[in-house]
Amino acid sequence: MNWKIKAFDELTVQELYDVLQLRSEIFVVEQHCAYQDLDNADQKALHLMGRNEDGRLVAYTRLFAPGIKYTEASIGRVITSSLVRGSGAGRLLMEKSIAAVEEAYGKGPIKIGAQQYLHRFYTSLGFEQTSDTYMEDGIPHIEMVRP
């Protein structure tokens, strides 16, 4: 997989289109969740993009400095395309995301708002549950922190 990380104002129009298309494909269509994806946070994030050998965007996260989404640095909009699920791409995406957060913002706690069904996956990456279950856009979520 080919990985790139860019600030919002460094994204090309095509890269931005690919990101929004993948986010819509997964969060809106696949997960049947009508929600406001464009939340004015993209401009404050770093965007980690993974493309397959055909150049298609198949993995993505957005990364935030401490104090933007949470007191801690954070990772959000974690997506892998159905084309690469089950291949280890999700784990690689999160490992790259954690490394990118630490490189950009220094070592420290990283907080995520995780879909509850992914609790075991995120625990395996060092995250610990820090909240009760809450509903976000009709999907059970939990907050987790990687100390």
* Class from secondary-structure proportions: alpha+beta
Order of helices and strands: EHEEEHEHEEE
For the biggest sheet, the summary is:
8 strands, mixed
CA(first)-CA(last) distance:
28 Å
Strand share of the residues? Answer: 25-35%
The percentage helix is 25-40%
Shape: globular
* pLDDT < 50 stretches: none
The total of helices stands at: 3
- Provide mean pLDDT, rounded: 95
Radius of gyration: 14 Å
Number of strands: 8
Short description:
The protein is of the alpha+beta class and 147 residues long. Helix content is 27%, strand content 32%. It contains 3 helices and 8 strands.
List keywords for this structure.
147 residues, alpha+beta, 8-stranded mixed beta sheet, 8 strands, 27% helix, globular
Q: How would you describe the overall organization of this protein?
A:
By secondary structure, the chain is of the alpha+beta class. 27% of the residues lie in helices and 32% in strands. The chain has three helices and eight strands, in the order E-H-E-E-E-H-E-H-E-E-E. Strands 1, 2, 3, 4, 5, 6, 7 and 8 form an eight-stranded mixed beta sheet that branches. Strand 3 and strand 4 form a beta hairpin. The longest helix is centred in the first third of the chain and has 18 residues. The protein is globular and about 40 Å long. The two termini are 28 Å apart. The model has no long low-confidence stretch (mean pLDDT 95).
